[in-house]
């Protein structure tokens, strides 16, 4: 940890130093940079700057052009912290210097001046004094007449004017000195030479020259040397620059007589710049001293300057070494950084590696345990699935065997049945029952056969044995085998092929089942006089077969489930008819074909089969080259439709002939079951029948039966909806309802009872049990009736909550009580008050109270008369009037008929009934 912290702090230090930004940008605008004096100035600056690392130094040389210098300064201003400028000319450069100053950039004006005082510091020598010093030196060394030419610097540059002014003032003390001419040398040797040569005739008498700098002095010397070789001319220059080609060397070489030191100012400029930037005290005006260098002191001065130069060189060398050392230090530091970083990373990685090693071991141990557990569980699963597979296999085998076993007893049942049906006597006695048993035995046989076929294909994976056949001829035979049955039901069968012969590879013992199933279904589910059409056509390498009917059709929900094996729909017989369509789909699939259904409720259904043409899609194992005999089509169509055979119960007794006390309404869509129940219940009750929900409701309201027996799943309204509607309607609420259904789970029973059914009986049922249930409900109804007709308050005795019926009885008896004295009060008045028909009122009152409405009215009138006779001292004729009798005689007769004595006698006896 300590190592990491040390590493982090180490990094911080190094990062900080390496990221440090250059602190200042100093710009230096030089008026001209070619001459030695100015090169020396620049070297001095650089030397001084090398002691201040981290400074950006921006240098621009205007090559003696004021406009260039203005542009250069303007361009650099934005990035500068400080500007050093030596203006080419005072006037033109004043503006840009003032601008820099106003923008807050410190400005050091060096050597030459501007016209303004808006700058931060000035560094230069006293050029006036230099002029004066030159005059004094000349006056001192020569006592004779001096005819002099003054070679001036660039007009407009401050040293030129100041030196001229100083010189002019200086010679005033020396009358022997006369300025014979003034030339503008512009600080440049060549310019001075040119100007001098132009003055050629006047030069003859000239014996001295004061040039404003050494360069121009050297040019003058050259001109005179050439024009007047050997003539003694005293030439004085300015600058006294040390080094090769400098003024000091000129004096030493006696090319010129003397030179006035004009300090190069570079070091001072940089020192002042840092004072300003570091907010240290500084002098605004810094004037450096000058002195005269001539033969008397030039040797000494040279030595000194050489010494200084060598020291300077030493410093530069030292600096080079220092820089080298710094580089070495830096690279060593980098190496050290890398080593420390690597070390720290190695320690961290080592730690991590160790940590992960430990963790890895833990995980591995954990994984090993998990692995063992998974392997163990996997083994258990394999074991279990093997057991399940074995159990499933055993169950399926059992199922298949049992299914096979069913065929023998079924055949043994069907054959004797066929014999019995041929026996006229037997048919006379139990013909209907025999026919029903026969039909259902066939249905069972068909289901068993389908199950066995399905098992063969689905479970045993039997491969098809396809041979090439004309599918049109094949379908024609199948259609023809149905014609007899179709004729009976007045159904029209059509085969509509697009051509005579379409050769298709198919298994004749499998594909026939597809068509038998689809056509027999179509026949079963269309009304009489319906149409079934079989279209065949060839298209895009496939044969298309449409089996189309105009029967009841299906909803889209039912159609979606139509091919699901064993799916039982709530209210559609086609979908719930077993596995026929699942088997069909499987067979078509085995032929590499497809089957789809399009249907519309109440409009019809079309099954479309597509089979590939040719035999490229078939494996060799799926083909047979033996010509298979086609199956017996008639036998198959017989067995397909035998379970659909309709027969009527000729002996159904007509209840109208011998009316029974009670009536029942049976609602069932299976015609056979409806016939059977009708026949059985007709022995005990008047029976009404309905085979759909809507008809059932109409009959219930019309007939008001004493009991309703209904199936749950019905076309149209379901049994539950019918029950709910009847039980919540005043006219029918009293009728007990028994629900009869194949749905036998507890949830389904509860849902049936929730719809207010009285009893729920599951199929298959024993008729005796159903009859007992019917009798029981009718008896209960009788008991309830007694409650209603008793004078006791109803809720006390009635354990059954039938609020609608109680309300009816209350309303009915209330209306009667209110109108008991009204002799014109009639049944129609009651019907109007309650809002039901005469027959419904009659049935309801009879069912709930056991009276006809008129009998009830009479009973209530007489009971009230008994009360009045017992409790009121009124004449009998008055009482007769009060209880609604218009004639006292009729009252007396009615009273006597009920109570055995006339009312007068009854009153006298004060008899209590
Ligand atoms: C160099 C120079 C010097 C002179 C100075 C005046 O360019 O001409 O010789 O002393 O400039 O500004």
Describe the 3D structure:
The protein is of the alpha/beta class and 913 residues long. 54% of the residues lie in helices and 15% in strands. The strands form 5 sheets. A 6-stranded parallel beta sheet has the order 2-1-3-4-5-11, sandwiched between helices. It has a 6-stranded mixed beta sheet with strand order 7-6-8-9-10-12, with helices on both faces. Helix 11 (298-422) packs antiparallel against helix 12 (424-458), helix 12 (424-458) crosses helix 16 and helix 14 (508-524) runs parallel beside helix 17 (633-642). It is elongated. Bound molecules: beta-D-fructofuranose (FRU). Beta-D-fructofuranose (FRU) binds at residues 32, 35, 37-38, 111-112, 153, 157, 159, 187, 213, 238-239, 262.
Q: Low-confidence stretches at least 5 residues in length (pLDDT < 50)?
A: 1-21, 568-577, 647-657, 791-801
Separation of termini? 116 Å
Ligand names: beta-D-fructofuranose
Put simply, the count of helices is: 30
The tally of strands reads: 24
Overall geometric form: elongated
Q: What percentage of amino acids are in beta strands?
A: 5-15%
Query: What is the gyration radius calculated from CA atoms?
Result: 68 Å
What are the defining features of this structure?
elongated; 913 residues; binds beta-D-fructofuranose; 24 strands; 6-stranded parallel beta sheet; 6-stranded mixed beta sheet; alpha/beta
Give the topology, please.
Layout: H1 2-19, E1 24-30, H2 36-50, E2 55-61, H3 66-76, E3 82-86, H4 90-102, E4 107-110, E5 121-125, H5 127-141, E6 146-152, H6 158-170, E7 177-184, H7 189-198, E8 208-211, H8 214-227, E9 234-239, H9 247-252, E10 258-261, H10 266-277, E11 285-288, E12 292-294, H11 298-422, H12 424-458, E13 467-470, H13 471-488, E14 492-497, E15 503-506, H14 508-524, E16 531-539, E17 542-549, H15 556-560, H16 580-590, E18 594-600, E19 604-612, H17 633-642, E20 663-667, H18 671-681, E21 686-690, H19 693-703, E22 707-711, H20 719-727, E23 737-741, H21 746-754, E24 759-762, H22 767-789, H23 794-797, H24 803-818, H25 827-834, H26 838-849, H27 853-871, H28 876-882, H29 888-899, H30 903-909
Parallel strand pairs: 1-2, 1-3, 3-4, 4-5, 5-11, 6-7, 6-8, 8-9, 9-10, 14-16, 20-21, 20-22, 22-23, 23-24
Antiparallel strand pairs: 10-12, 13-15, 16-17, 17-19, 18-19
The structure holds beta-D-fructofuranose (FRU).
């Amino acid at each position: 940890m300590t190592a990491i912290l040390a590493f982090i702090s180490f990094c911080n230090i190094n990062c900080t130093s390496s990221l440090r930004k250059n602190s200042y940008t100093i710009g230096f605008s030089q008026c001209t940079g070619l001459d030695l004096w100015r090169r020396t100035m620049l070297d001095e600056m650089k030397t001084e700057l090398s002691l201040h690392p981290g400074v950006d130094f921006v240098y621009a040389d205007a090559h003696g052009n004021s406009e260039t210098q203005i542009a250069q300064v303007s361009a650099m201003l934005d990035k500068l912290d400080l500007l050093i400028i030596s203006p080419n000319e005072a006037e033109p450069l004043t503006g840009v210097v003032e601008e820099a100053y106003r923008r807050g950039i410190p400005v050091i004006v060096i050597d030459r001046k501007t016209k303004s005082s808006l700058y931060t510091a000035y560094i230069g020598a006293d050029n006036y004094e230099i002029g004066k010093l030159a005059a004094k030196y000349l006056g001192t060394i020569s006592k004779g007449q001096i005819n002099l030419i003054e070679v001036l610097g660039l007009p407009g540059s401050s040293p030129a004017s100041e030196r001229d002014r100083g010189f002019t003032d200086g010679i005033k003390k020396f009358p022997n000195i006369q300025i014979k001419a003034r030339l503008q040398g512009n600080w440049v040797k060549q310019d001075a030479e040119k100007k001098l040569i132009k003055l050629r005739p006047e030069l003859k008498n000239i014996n001295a020259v004061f040039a404003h700098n050494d360069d121009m002095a050297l040019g003058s010397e050259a001109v005179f040397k050439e024009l007047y070789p050997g003539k003694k001319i005293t030439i004085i220059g300015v600058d006294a620059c040390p080094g090769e080609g400098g003024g000091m060397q000129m004096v030493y070489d006696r090319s010129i007589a003397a030179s006035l030191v004009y300090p190069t100012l570079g070091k001072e400029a940089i020192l002042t710049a840092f004072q300003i930037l570091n907010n240290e005290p500084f002098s605004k005006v810094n004037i450096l001293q000058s002195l005269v260098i001539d033969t008397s002191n030039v040797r000494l001065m040279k030595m000194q300057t050489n010494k200084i130069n060598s020291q300077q060189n030493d410093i530069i060398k030292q600096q080079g070494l220092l820089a080298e050392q710094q580089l070495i230090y830096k690279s060593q530091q980098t190496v050290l950084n890398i080593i420390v970083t690597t070390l720290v990373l190695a320690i961290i990685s080592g730690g991590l590696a160790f940590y992960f090693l430990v963790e890895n071991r833990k995980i591995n141990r954990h994984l090993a345990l998990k692995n063992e557990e998974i392997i163990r569980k996997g083994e258990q699963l394999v074991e279990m699935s093997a057991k399940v597979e074995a159990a499933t296999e055993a169950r399926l085998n059992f199922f298949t065997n049992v299914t096979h076993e069913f065929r023998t007893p079924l055949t043994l049942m069907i054959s004797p049945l066929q014999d019995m049906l041929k026996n006229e006597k037997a048919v006379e006695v139990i013909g209907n029952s025999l026919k029903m048993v026969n039909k259902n035995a066939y249905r069972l046989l068909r289901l068993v056969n389908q199950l066995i076929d399905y098992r063969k294909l689905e479970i045993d994976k039997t491969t098809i044995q396809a041979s090439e056949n004309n599918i049109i001829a094949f379908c024609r035979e199948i259609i023809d085998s149905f014609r007899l049955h179709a004729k009976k039901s007045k159904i029209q069968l059509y085969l509509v092929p697009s051509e005579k012969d379409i050769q298709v590879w198919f298994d004749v013992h499998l594909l026939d089942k597809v068509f038998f199933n689809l056509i027999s279904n179509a026949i079963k589910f269309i009304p009489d006089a319906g149409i079934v059409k079989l279209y065949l056509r060839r298209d895009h390498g496939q044969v298309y077969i449409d089996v189309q009917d105009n029967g009841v059709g299906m909803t889209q929900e039912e159609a979606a489930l139509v091919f699901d094996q064993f799916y039982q729909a709530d209210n559609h017989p086609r979908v719930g008819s077993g596995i026929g369509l699942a088997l069909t789909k499987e067979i078509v699939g085995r032929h590499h074909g497809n089957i789809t259904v399009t249907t519309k409720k109440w409009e019809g259904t079309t099954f479309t089969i597509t089979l590939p043409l040719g035999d490229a899609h078939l494996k060799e194992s799926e083909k047979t080259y033996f010509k298979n005999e086609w199956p017996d089509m008639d036998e198959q169509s017989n067995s397909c439709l035998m379970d659909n055979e309709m027969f009527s119960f000729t002996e159904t007794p007509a209840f109208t002939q011998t009316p029974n006390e009670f009536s029942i309404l049976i609602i069932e869509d299976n015609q056979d079951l409806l016939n059977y129940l009708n026949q059985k219940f007709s022995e005990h009750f008047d029976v009404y029948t309905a085979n759909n929900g809507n008809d059932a409701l109409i009959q219930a309201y019309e007939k008001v039966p004493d009991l309703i027996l209904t199936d749950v799943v019905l076309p149209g309204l379901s049994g539950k909806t019918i029950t709910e509607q009847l039980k919540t309607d005043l006219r029918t609420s009293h009728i007990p309802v028994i629900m009869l259904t194949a749905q036998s789970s507890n949830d389904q029973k509860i849902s049936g009872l929730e719809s207010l059914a009285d009893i729920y009986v599951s199929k298959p049922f024993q008729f005796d049990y159903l009859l007992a249930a019917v009798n029981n409900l009718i008896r209960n109804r009788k008991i309830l009736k007694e409650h209603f007709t008793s004078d006791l308050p109803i809720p006390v005795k009635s354990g059954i909550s039938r609020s609608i019926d109680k309300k009816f009885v209350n309303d009915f008896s209330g209306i009667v009580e209110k109108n008991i004295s009204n002799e014109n009060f009639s049944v129609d008045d009651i019907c109007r008050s309650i809002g039901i028909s005469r027959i419904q009122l009659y049935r309801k009152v009879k069912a709930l109270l056991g009276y006809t409405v008129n009998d009830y009215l009479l009973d209530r009138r007489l009971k009230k008369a008994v009360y009045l006779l017992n409790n009121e001292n009124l004449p009998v004729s008055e009482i007769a009037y009060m209880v609604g009798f218009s004639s006292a005689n009729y009252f007396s007769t009615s009273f006597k008929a009920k109570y055995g004595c006339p009312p007068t006698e009854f009153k006298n006896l004060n008899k209590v009934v």
